[in-house]
Predict the 3D structure of the following.
Amino acid sequence: MVTQAFGRKSSMLFGGAAFLLGSAINGVAMNVAMLIIGRILLGVGVGFANQAVPLYLSEMAPPQLRGALNMGFQMATTIGIFVAGLVNYGTGKLHAGYGWRISVALAAVPALIMTLGAVALPDTPNSLVERGLRDQAKATLQKIRGTDDVEAELQDMIEASEEAKKVSDPWSSILRPEHRPHLVMAIAIPMFQQLTGINVIMFYAPVLFKTIGFGDSASLMSAVISGLVNVFATTVSIATVDKFGRRVLFLEGGIQMVVSQVAVGAILGTFFGDAGTGKLSPALANLVLALICVYVAAFAWSWGLGWLVPSEIFPLNIRSAGQSIVVGVNFLFTFIIAQLFLMALCHLKSGLFHLFAAFVVVMTLFVVFLVPETKGVPIEEMTLVWKKHWFWKKYILDDHITPSEHWRAD
């Protein structure tokens, strides 16, 4: 609601401020209550940022570069994970008892950058049009496109805005049949993104590596290595997403993740033992680390697109509501998997990796049959993509395609 009423910039400012305050409270926490309050504020900050930033990037980017520019969000996330791993590795070597305070307080640095950066940013032309500020929208569009000839794109935004104003409640509108494809993607893509098991690796990498034979320090360093692989693989995604398209990366990455997860499960089951009493040799432990890095790389250039695709598919009248659902579902399944992982690891042992592999098979088939290609399509013309899809076209009304559109699918 904040994003729709006050713009994407306001949401980023609010999120950055909440994150800054939360990290400060956590850094000086004197009791558990202060830690909980700080974590709540961090949750507010992350929620607002994850809702507003992908929308901002998708609306500001030209269609031919939207994938690469939006993946900057995922790139920043992977760099943050990598840097956090380095910080934890360094503070873990401190023996004065305050290393954890340094770890949590340093979150204030990116929070400050985000808050101050948002102050300097213009709001998106789409959001300005939505709020009736058409002159500002035109000026912003001319600036970010580097040309005065923006009438066609601006007209698309105005028409989308006029259509959006006919909808009084985006939450009820997103439940209507013509928005069925959008709702399914808003739920399925973030759910599947978490069911890949990526956050299991990112949350519990040190625990996992310690379990298979690495020492404390080596376990933290192994987590840093997987984080570094994540960063490099995301650069591959940025370079290829607008060249090969979203579907190709989803499909290749899905196959790569299945192979690596099955291999990790087989090695742990065979040599470590389902009873958990075995021990891997250093060579096998390093092989497991390498396979996990292969898996992390595959995720980075496939289901790492889980923030990109939803942010570019919603029409303006349900865009803020749709992205809110994406963020809510993502964090709901993040929470569920984080809570259940250790218990599942104790009961399923190596079979847990096979379970995640099975999920990846299902989601890869979902991409094959139900996820359309959105590469190079202007964000306000995305209806044509659904209209051409073999399954989703039956939900799209003919009057959603108007003669004024300036783009046509090949």
About this structure: Residues 319-348 form the longest helix (30 residues). Confidence is low (pLDDT under 50) at residues 400-410.
